[in-house]
Amino acid sequence: MSRNYRYFGRRGRLTLLAILISAGLIYAQRAGLLGEGGNLASRNQPGLYSVAHFVDGDTIAVNMNGKVEKVRLVGIDTPETHKPNTPVQCYGPAAAAFTKNVIGSNHVRLVADSLSTDRDRYDRLLRYVYLPDGTNVNEKLVQNGYAFYYPYFPFTKSEQFSFDQDRAMAAHKGIWGNCTPTRTERGGYISNNQD
Known about the structure:
This protein has helices at 2-30, 92-103, 137-143, 158-170, 175-178, and strands at 48-49, 51-56, 59-64, 67-73, 76-77, 108-111, 125-130, 148-149, 182-183, 189-190. The chain is an alpha+beta fold and 195 residues long.
């Protein structure tokens, strides 16, 4: 009889544990904490935000803490697509489309730069934008010739972005193969206007 009691006791404890785990999973699913396949939903991980809309190649808007915040990708500059009093610049629409395509429906992680200010003069957050797989969207734009490295303000990835730009330029990628960028007095580049 004592042998059956021990078996029932262990079995009972395992049953109770299974019930508690199931209840926890049901609660997490109903609370929206689980995504498909039972994984933690990325939208609920701290620091990951959904994109509300795409502004242009170097600016997005994210849903953050109940409001929409514009985010300027730090360290880069893409050709203009709809800046007031500025014509559409060469490769601007392509850069905007590339950013939208790379991010897609992914949630993004925003990371501030310790050398940069928190916001720019237009009150946009200045951030590196990362995909859930760790891809740095800012750098990917420079690497593929959709953005210029932005040398006008200090930021920690300055040397890397400058290197990425030199490689894209040498390979005639994107802007470098399809436009005639003009060097500025301060060491950066701007795109020419579209024909």
